[in-house]
Each structure stands twice: as C-alpha cells, then as structure tokens.
Amino acid sequence: MHVHILGVCGTFMGSLARLAKALGHHVSGSDANVYPPMSTQLEEAGIALCEGYTADNLMPRPDVVIIGNALSRGNPEVEAVLDAKLPYVSGPQWLAEHVLPGRQVVAVAGTHGKTTTASLLTWIMEATGHAPGFLIGGVPRNLGVSSRLGTAGAPFVVEADEYDTAFFDKRSKFVHYRPDVAVLGNLEFDHADIFPDLAAIERQFHHLVRTVPGNGQLVVAAGEPALERVLAQGCWSPIVRFGEGDEVAWRWRMLSDDGRRFEVRHGERQASVAWSLSGRHNVSNAVAALAAAAACGVGLEEGAAALSRFESPRRRQEVRGEIGGIQVIDDFAHHPTAIAATLEGLGAGTHSGRLLAVIEPRSNTMRLGAMRERLPASVAAADRVWWYQPPALSWSLDTLADACPVPAAVSEDIETLVAEVVADAMPGDRIVVMSNGAFEGIHEKLLAALEVRHGG
C-alpha cells in the first residue's frame, strides 16, 4: 500500500511514517518545514520527502493519505486530496487501526512531561527485556528513534496528546488509542487556540478516561485538582496514584535538592535512583513511568535500575555543546509551568555559574497572549533572561520584560540576540534555550559565536 503523509516532519506524523514503513508500506510525505532531527530520521528510513505542498506530490496516486492536524482547508495539497476524492484519514485513527490492535497500549497524557515520561517508560520496558513498541513526540537518546513497532504482542507506549486530531476530527488525539493503561501526569490550561477554558480540556481528558477498560489501570498524579475533577465525572477503572504524600501508592522523596537522587516506595518495596536529570518535575515523571511499567509486569527495583542509565530525550535539557566552560542547553519548555520547572531544576544544583535563559514564546497559546501574565514569574530561577520577539507574535514583550524579577531584555533579531548573550556569558555559565520550534538555529549560532569569543 502507498501511504502519503501530509505534515510528515511533525513529531507525531514523522514517527507514524516510520511505523508505516516498518509495516511494509511504501511511504512518502510532504511538509513545509523539512529540518532535523525528524527529516534525518525519515531519510534514513527510506521515506521520500517533498518540501512544500502541491497537488503534484500526490502523483503517483497514493492508496491513502494521512493528514496531520497542522493542515487545514485552503492548503493546496489538502484541496487536491478532496477534489480527487482520495481516501484520507487522521494520524491517530491510522495508528489505532493499523498498529495498536492486539497490543497492551500504555498512553501517557498530561499538559507537561508527556515526552519525557513516555521516553522513561519505554526505556524501562526496553532495559528490562520487554522490547516495546512506541511512538513518542521526541527522540529518546537511549533508543535513537521516535517510534518503533517492537516485538509482536509486546506493550506499545504512545505519547497521548490532547491537541485536536485533524481539520475533520476535532476530538483530542488520545481518544483514538483506547489504552489499557493511561498515565495522567498533570492538567492545566493550554492550547488556547482550540480550547476556550480548562473545563473544555477536562472534558477531553474524561473522554480518555471513559475508554480505559475496567480491567485496565489509571496512573494518576496526586494533588492535581483538575485531574480530580476529571475523575469525579466518572471512572470505571482501578486508580493508582503517585506523588510525595505518604497516602499514595507510589510515593517519592527527594534525596538531593536538584532531584538527581531520589527514593521511591511502593508498598513494602523501595528503591533509590541516581540519574542525570534534574528537577522535581522529572522525579514525578520518573515515578509515573515506574508505576505504569509495574502495570506491564516490571518490578520496582529493576525499573529503578534502568532509570540510572536513562538519557533525556533530545530537546529536554539536552546539552548541545560547551565552549570555554559555557554550556548551551536546549529545552522544549514553552508553557510558564514548564519554563519554571526546568529553570528551577537546573538552578537547584551545586553548579557555580549563572543560569542564562533565552526564550521564544512560539506556541499558539503564547502567540494569543493567553499566558503572558504568568511568564515573568516563570523565569525567577534564572539569573538573566532574553526574550525573543518573533515576527508572528502580535503583542509586545517589552512590558513582560519590565515585569521580570531578574534582569531581562527583548530582541527582535536573532543575530543581535546571539551577540548580546555571548557578550554577557562567562565561563561556568549555562545558557538554556527554550522554544517548541527550531528557533532559527540559535543553538548552533550561539556555539559558533562562543567559539570565536571563548574558544581559546
């Protein structure tokens, strides 16, 4: 079967393309933004890429077109699909129909931490010999790819996004997966472009809860009011909670301020973990993964041992390079809660240098200004922050910078921004770049400029 994918370089769609190829299909795809790491993954898998959207990309005629949720009416290739009456389907539906049947499906949901938690869970399963299948919205460095079919019959881990499915299916992606185990890591308002308020997102999460069977399991973060409201709407599956309190089934305790050492208890069993990640949020992600892995037959001790060898996914506190004692760190955080958690985690250790934050408010929610009041406080753990004003942002960042509790500046030009950051940076500092996009290759530009100034 010839499968053609629109939006193929998106994290979900590119991962899906790899699975389709592994199933033996001929796979091609189109996208307006073809850049690594996804483009590299696809090319290595032998998937033909077309840059740009045009009716010509549909020749020869595919058997089915999978349309990503970033595509909408008016896109020339979407219009060509409809005019030619080609069979088309959403990515989540295709995954549910062609990959998930017959598998124990573990879905990882939540406003923050889905990619990291799904990566942690997949690595635990892999390291303990279960050879799982997976589809993750990032590239776990332990595994090297964002998706894999895994061994037939083995569990399948899927990052379960609440964003809408496609222009013709406005339900959240995760309602298609019908998981046996669902992780609910947290829940707060996001995606202001499609959800009017938090209650609307809670309804979608309850749709997910409704699909978990009675002999399945919900792994739920304790102390999350929005998740408790979701469960209060009705729940028909066993619930296992995780958190810091003694009353929860899976409880954790920090053994170091930065979260690089922590203890986990479940019943009479306990284990300690020393690993490379930092921050309370990542400890919580790890314990969620341990609890979900236990539902798939992995013991606490062996799961904890696997965590000590875990490497964070790309773009999650990923050190991109170090020049003259100055690190450049890449992180995907783009919501105020995630920005604060990442900076607090990085700032909690014994590192002697400063933490310099460079942030692009790029997400649809940020562009609408829905979170602008919360952004100043989110950078309190940094020593200095630079805000990038992208052309598509309709509101000025100047007032935001004035309200920051740390020294802050705004730049509308990448080259100027790089020059200012590099001029300020000193040996021992860490520069953490935060965006959910490519940020115009700023990481490489920072490293190149640092090499000129500090490379010796």
From TrEMBL:
Q: What is this protein called?
A: UDP-N-acetylmuramate--L-alanyl-gamma-D-glutamyl-meso-2,6-diaminoheptandioate ligase
Q: Please tell me where ATP binds in this chain.
A: 110-116
Swiss-Prot/TrEMBL catalytic activity: UDP-N-acetyl-alpha-D-muramate + L-alanyl-gamma-D-glutamyl-meso-2,6-diaminopimelate + ATP = UDP-N-acetyl-alpha-D-muramoyl-L-alanyl-gamma-D-glutamyl-meso-2,6-diaminopimelate + ADP + phosphate + H(+)
User: Which SUPFAM superfamilies does UniProt cross-reference here?
Assistant: MurCD N-terminal domain, MurD-like peptide ligases, catalytic domain, MurD-like peptide ligases, peptide-binding domain
**Domain Mur ligase central: residue ranges:** 108-293
State the source organism's domain of life: Bacteria
* Keywords tagged on the record: ATP-binding, Cell cycle, Cell division, Cell shape, Cell wall biogenesis/degradation, Ligase, Magnesium, Nucleotide-binding, Peptidoglycan synthesis
Q: What is the recorded function of this protein according to its Swiss-Prot or TrEMBL entry?
A: Reutilizes the intact tripeptide L-alanyl-gamma-D-glutamyl-meso-diaminopimelate by linking it to UDP-N-acetylmuramate.
Gene giving rise to this polypeptide: mpl
EC annotation from Swiss-Prot or TrEMBL: 6.3.2.45
Q: What are the required cofactors?
A: Mg(2+)
Q: Which family does it belong to?
A: Belongs to the MurCDEF family. Mpl subfamily.
- GO: which molecular function terms? UDP-N-acetylmuramate-L-alanyl-gamma-D-glutamyl-meso-2,6-diaminoheptanedioate ligase activity
The Mur ligase N-terminal catalytic domain, residue ranges: 2-98
Pathway, according to UniProt?
Answer: Cell wall biogenesis; peptidoglycan recycling
Q: Where is the Mur ligase C-terminal domain?
A: 315-437
Its EC top class is ligase
